[in-house]
Design goal:
Blueprint lengths: L17 E6 L1 H6 L5 E5 L9 E4 L13 H14 L10
Antiparallel strand pairs: 1-2, 2-3
The structure holds zinc ion.
The site of zinc ion (ZN) has 8 residues, from loops.
Length: about 90
């Protein structure tokens, strides 16, 4: 019997350019903090913020929005996404 997955004490460092990150439903179920929806862009005071899901590839439909809206979209997607990313090298 295998050991249950254990949450890392601290999440891994965020990739360069990521300004907000939301754990997906699959990430939560699999206890994998790398399955996230990430927001990238200029941040506050800019209209070029977008999100992209690291599990299913879903992304913002428009070319960019303010940070609050991009975060709301990312959070909403993370709340429902159950996609599991293909393991690397498989
Ligand atoms: Zn997704």
């Amino acid at each position: 019997m295998s050991q249950p997955a254990v949450w890392a004490e601290r999440p891994a460092a965020w990739p360069k350019g990521v300004i907000a990150r939301y754990l997906t439903r699959a990430g939560e179920a699999l206890r994998d903090p790398s399955i996230t929806v990430d927001v990238v862009g200029g941040g506050e005071y800019h209209e070029n913020n977008i999100y992209r899901c690291r599990a299913c590839g879903s992304k913002s439909l428009n070319s960019g929005t303010n940070l609050i809206y991009a975060e709301e979209q990312a959070h909403a997607h993370a709340e429902k996404c159950r996609a599991v990313p293909r393991p690397e090298g498989v």
